[in-house]
Amino acid sequence: MVKYTSLTRLENEVMKVILMRVGLLTCLALGWFHGEAFAEVEQPSQCASYGEIKQKQNPSLQHVNCLLTNAALEADIPPEVVKAIATKESGATEDNRIWSQFDNEGKPRISQDGGIGLMQITNQSTYDQERLKYDVYYNIQTGVRILSDMYNRTDLPKIKGVGREIIENWYFPVMAYNGTKPVNSPLYQSTGEKNTEAYQEKVFALIEYYSFVNDSKLKLGQFPFTTEDFDYDVSQDENIKFSKKEYALTDQLHSSTYSFKLGNKVTVTGDGVNLRSQPGTSSTISTLAKDTALVVNGGFKYDQDSGSERQFVWYPVSTLDQQSAGYISSAYLMKSYTPGKVMNVSMSTDKASPQTEGTPVTLTATSEGSIEPEYRFYVRDEKGTLTMLQEYGSSNKVTWTPKSKGTYTLIVHAKDKSKSGANSYYEARTERTYQVEAEKVTKVIMSTDKASPQTEGTSVTLTATSEGSSEPEYRFYVRDEKGTLTMLQEYGSSNKVTWIPQSKGTYTLIVHAKDKSKSGANSYYEARTEKTYQVEAGKVTEVSMSTDKASPQTEGTPVTLTATSEGSIEPEYRFYVRDEKGTLTMLQEYGSSNKVTWIPQSKGTYTLIVHAKDKSNSGANSYYEARMDTSYAIN
Hints:
Layout: H1 9-30, H2 61-74, H3 79-90, H4 129-134, H5 136-151, E1 158-159, H6 171-178, H7 199-211, E2 230-231, E3 241-242, E4 246-247, E5 265-268, E6 273-276, E7 284-288, E8 293-296, E9 314-319, E10 325-329, E11 333-335, E12 344-349, E13 355-356, E14 361-368, E15 373-380, E16 386-393, E17 397-400, E18 406-416, E19 428-437, E20 443-448, E21 454-455, E22 460-467, E23 472-479, E24 485-492, E25 496-499, E26 505-515, E27 527-536, E28 542-547, E29 559-566, E30 571-578, E31 584-591, E32 595-598, E33 604-614, E34 626-634
Parallel strand pairs: 1-4, 13-19, 21-27
Antiparallel strand pairs: 2-3, 5-8, 5-11, 6-7, 8-9, 9-10, 12-14, 14-17, 15-16, 15-18, 18-19, 20-22, 22-25, 23-24, 23-26, 26-27, 28-29, 29-32, 30-31, 30-33, 33-34
Helix pairs in contact: 2-3, 2-5, 3-7, 5-6, 6-7
């Protein structure tokens, strides 16, 4: 048997390695990923040059940069996106680090809502919770897998015609990483303004700051959002429903800059960009002008300063003439453009022909054969007058608002971006005919200021609202139960009219609407609506009474009682007087007169009473609808 005391120094070192690996395998087999139970954590071989990842210690920033980059590339996600999420989730914590798995005491960072570690993994019970706490690369890989799953969701919008390599196409997966809740809506529902506090907006701002060196000229493409794209209730916590599932961006889109290979031709995107002797900012060889062509001489490298917060990487490059070589930041590189040719172009409109004057129509061109096409749009009227809607540019959309009726020809020219100056003729062309009609009211609705039913004599205001015409006119009618049609207002610009019904019944309120241009023999309505309205018999809702002489008075003095009522246009009144013994004497039966004279014959305290009702209530229905009494003294 060989004893440990007889081993050579080399043999001792070998034995230590063997025992350490056996211990690690044992820990892996038992799943002990907490406390002191494991000796090391996994990491990709590409990051091994930074050394082992030590227990309960944050790796250097460029070590983490390497871990994040490799996990992103393995999952086919732009590393720029993954790094920005990590920055948002764990950025600027202890010692102002932008990335951290552990706090200063070596404890895993766990937020109040249970988010774990660098990627703040929350509510993911299918993953090993202890490894999420103590294995930084496992934490990163888990966050990347979750983000990739968000990209694969079919309920989230995408950018038309682009794939996973485009940074902008991760806008909605990034939102979903935090949650598609109303708080992350790209726009404020009430105002339509951009919600800069949304999670994904903050992440994309971090991409621009760290991966594009915060250059104002290098901005990510903006989505053409409208509030109609998102359906949610701000008072509820339910997920946003996305009404629009595909977007076409007119701004420049950005591919990840981590895919350049040896021999690739690239172009400098900034002005006065430094060419460095090493992958860092310590020394400058020369400055390069915008659009300088370069050749990639190898794979990217991380910043030589292991504590640097720079998230971009450095590529070894040389100029085409091989006169200069060095390192350049990936933030200032893009693949060189190879001129192509537009082989075919087509055009569509967002609204089918015909449309009315003043209706905005968006023309969209689509081409084949060029990766950077440019488009020029024209419109020709019936007289042959040609008007340019847009000069050659990268935008494939333009909006045209016709001002008069007629038959128009819509035209689009398309060419490759490389064709300019004397060569700016089109390589493909298409046109289509479009009909524009005089403005027309397409819809009309009507409302009343008082809900049905109302009583006779009540003033009711009818209000019409229409769509489709900038100068609508309205005509109002009312039809009674016998079919008699009465015009309340002839065609005019006023959209309001007041109607005062004079008798009870069921009425039909009608409004016609047309464009102002339709007159004479053409003054038929273009849109019409009606609604039923119930009118009830008048009803006295309140009655009051006064006397021409103030109480008290002496025996034999004539006193005139006067009643006043509300609610009925034909009220009737009945008057009584009751003496101290309770004897009730009628002074006047129901009638239209609101006055009666009473001559008291003896002293005492009397009660004067008035009943009021609408004239229509008679016979068995002649009960009062309102009543009042008052005391009166006779000396």
